[in-house]
Specification:
By secondary structure, the chain is an alpha+beta fold. It contains three helices and four strands. The chain has one domain. 29% of the residues lie in helices and 28% in strands. The protein has a four-stranded antiparallel β-sheet with strand order 3-2-1-4. The longest helix has 11 residues.
Length: 95
């Protein structure tokens, strides 16, 4: 991840108390870095038996080349190794 993003997350996100802050922190980060795009969707964490588990409503940022920048990833025990599914993909899948 780009060092400027790492530094911003370090200075602006409390990694121990970031659950429920994804929308706020992702929007703030996108405001700070206009090259990022704000995304809403679901995050499917990986369970202990390595199967995809329950999906959570979640927000994150994406770079122009599609790399996920998740300022609140610390809330997930799998450290962001799960699957990020944008809302647009969910709407298409169920339409």
């Amino acid at each position: 991840m780009n060092a400027k993003y790492v530094e911003w997350i370090k200075n602006n996100v409390d990694s121990k108390h970031c659950a429920g802050e994804c929308g706020i922190k992702s929007r703030e980060m996108c405001d700070e870095f206009p090259e990022l795009m704000f995304i809403e969707g679901r995050y499917y964490k990986i369970s202990e038996d390595k199967k995809e588990a329950h999906g959570y409503g979640h927000c994150w940022c994406v770079t122009k080349d599609g790399k996920i920048i998740d300022p609140t990833v610390a809330q997930f025990e799998d450290d962001g190794q799960g699957r990020y599914v944008p809302k647009a993909e969910l709407e298409y899948a169920f339409s």
